[in-house]
């Protein structure tokens, strides 16, 4: 078994725009007179925009028309785009560039599998778009995480077999998506939360590709 590619989630793995999502979603919730706190925001990690809004509406037992639903999505995204305008290379997590350098040296392809439709914009602002061999398009897949669609789509774009891929995620839904795609799952965060992950690191600064590859090879025996 060889490692052909490592496929990364974006938010919470390479950078953190979760606070911007929280502010934008909270503004929508306040407008609808629905309570939305940080615990709610944690539940939306790895969840796409449409399903995040459905979650908020369900909290308030609200039903809106399709037109209203689309307008709320637009309002949230407009505010989020305003907030991320300040994102720059300094917002990249420690350890990411070193990790990518190791992967490049090892001839391992690098993919991006984010649920965000703004992922390309964010990685451009971070200054790392040129380091990816393929960037997944969340808008092009039928099902969002925890379905495996985005990870399978990226593997296809990289022209590699899913079984030869390692996925890196910080969210429970994302780790589930990796496992459903028949990939080796590396979690970034707390092991007691990311229980489905094959290996967990507290942060990207502690990500050790040699250790990951060893565990990956052992899992295939």
Automatic annotation (TrEMBL):
Where exactly is the site Important for catalytic activity and assists the phosphoryl transfer reaction to Asp8 by balancing charge and orienting the reacting groups?
114, 145
Lineage top rank: taxon: Bacteria
Q: Name one Pfam family in it.
A: Hydrolase
Q: Please name the catalytic residues of this protein.
A: 9, 11
Query: Does the record carry Metal-binding as a key word?
Result: yes
**Binding site residues for substrate:** 9-11, 25, 44-49, 52, 76, 114-118, 145
Note on cofactor: Binds 2 magnesium ions per subunit.
Give the required cofactors. Answer: Mg(2+)
Positions annotated to bind Mg(2+): 9, 11, 169-170
- Which keywords describe this protein according to UniProt? Magnesium, Metal-binding
Any one GO BP annotation for this protein: carbohydrate metabolic process
What terms describe the molecular function in GO for this protein?
beta-phosphoglucomutase activity; magnesium ion binding
The record's similarity note reads: Belongs to the HAD-like hydrolase superfamily. CbbY/CbbZ/Gph/YieH family.
Designated name of the protein: Putative beta-phosphoglucomutase
């Amino acid at each position: 078994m060889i490692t052909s590619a490592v496929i990364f989630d974006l938010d919470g793995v390479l950078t953190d725009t979760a606070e911007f999502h929280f502010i934008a979603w909270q503004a929508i919730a306040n407008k609808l007179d629905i309570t939305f706190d940080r615990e709610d925001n944690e539940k939306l990690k790895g969840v796409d925009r449409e399903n995040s809004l459905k979650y908020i509406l369900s909290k308030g037992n609200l039903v809106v028309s399709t037109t209203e639903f689309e307008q709320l999505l637009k309002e949230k995204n407009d505010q989020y785009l305003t907030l991320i305008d300040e994102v720059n290379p300094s917002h990249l997590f420690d350890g990411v560039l070193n990790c990518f350098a190791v992967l490049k040296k090892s001839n391992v392809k690098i993919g991006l599998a984010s649920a965000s439709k703004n992922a390309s914009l964010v990685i451009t602002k971070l200054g790392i778009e040129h380091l990816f061999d393929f960037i997944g398009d969340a808008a092009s897949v039928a099902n969002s995480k925890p379905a495996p669609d985005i990870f399978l789509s990226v593997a296809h774009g990289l022209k590699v077999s899913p079984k030869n891929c390692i996925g890196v995620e910080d969210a429970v839904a994302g780790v589930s998506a990796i496992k459903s795609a028949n990939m080796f799952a590396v979690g970034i965060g707390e092991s007691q939360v990311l229980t489905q992950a094959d290996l967990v690191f507290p942060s990207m600064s502690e990500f050790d590709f040699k250790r990951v590859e060893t565990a990956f090879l052992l899992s295939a025996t």
